[in-house]
Each structure stands twice: as structure tokens, then as C-alpha cells.
Amino acid sequence: MLAQKRRIFVSFDHDDTDQVNGFLGLRNITDGFEFFNHKLDHRVSSNDVDYVCRVIRDEYINPASVTVVLIGNRTAQSDWVRWEVQESLKQGKGILGIRLPGTNGQVPDGIPQNAVGVWNPEKFGKWIEWAYQNRKS
Question: In the prediction, which pLDDT does 31 show?
């Protein structure tokens, strides 16, 4: 019997979009996971912060089982990433930080140090499952 497909919300700073696209391109090597994020979805483009937060929460974070935060040099300073991590924790989602290659930024608040890994695509599936199993639901 196949395990339930894990839905992964991907949080990142917009400065890291090129590397995030590379990460999302790897999704074919991790069967059993469905990756999605809002920053590459132009439907969320709006100047109405309340509207954007509602759409992100309702359409992206709510249905996710795990939030993966891709950590670049400025990710910890992003108000959006901070809000997405807080909302994910509030909802009891699994949380995982993955450092992007060649970066050395701080880990955003709310991500436990034992839930942060360095870029290693061969381990992504195992880490995501670990985050799911260790969520606070």
C-alpha cells in the first residue's frame, strides 16, 4: 500500500527564485511529494496584504503537510517567510529548513536547529518525511 502523498508548501525569499526553481525541478526524484508555492503563482499578486495572507493560508499552507523553507542569505529577514513559518507552526505543519547551495544566511525564527539541513537532494525525501512525522499537530 502506498503512503499518502505529502503536500509540501515551499517558502523562500524572492531573491532566491533562481535556486528555488532548481529545487522545484528536482521534485521528480522524490516520489510521494507534491510541491507548491505561491510566489510563482501570479494569482496572488496584489497590494492587499490581508487578501494575500488569506490566499496563502487557505490555498497553500492549509492543505500542506510540511512547510519547507529554502534558506538563502536574506531569508531570515523576509517578513513573508517569517509569517509563513509562524502560520505553518500555528497550524501544526511539519517544518524543515534546507540551506541553498553557496549561502550562509541565518535560520529564520521558528525553525528548530535539528530541522535544518544543507543542500543534499538525495536526502530531501527522508527529511520531508521526518518533518511530517515530527509535526506538532
Answer: 62
Q: Is 19 exposed, middle or buried (0-12, 13-18, 19+ CB in 10 A)?
A: middle
Average pLDDT across each block of 10 residues of the chain; the chain has 137 residues. List them in order: 73 88 66 64 71 86 94 94 94 96 94 92 89 86
Model pLDDT for residues 32-43, shown as the tens digit of each residue: 677 766 555 555
DSSP assignment string, 28-79: GGSTTEEEE-STT-GGG--S-HHHHHHHIIIIIITT-SEEEEEE-SSGGG-H
Residue type present at position 120: N
- Per DSSP, what are the bridge partners of residue 97? 69, 116
Task: Give first-to-last CA distance, the chain, whole Å.
Answer: 24
Q: Please give the CATH architecture assigned to the domain spanning 6-133.
A: 3-Layer(aba) Sandwich (3.40)
- Taking only Cα atoms into account, the Rg of the chain, rounded to an integer number of angstroms, comes to 14
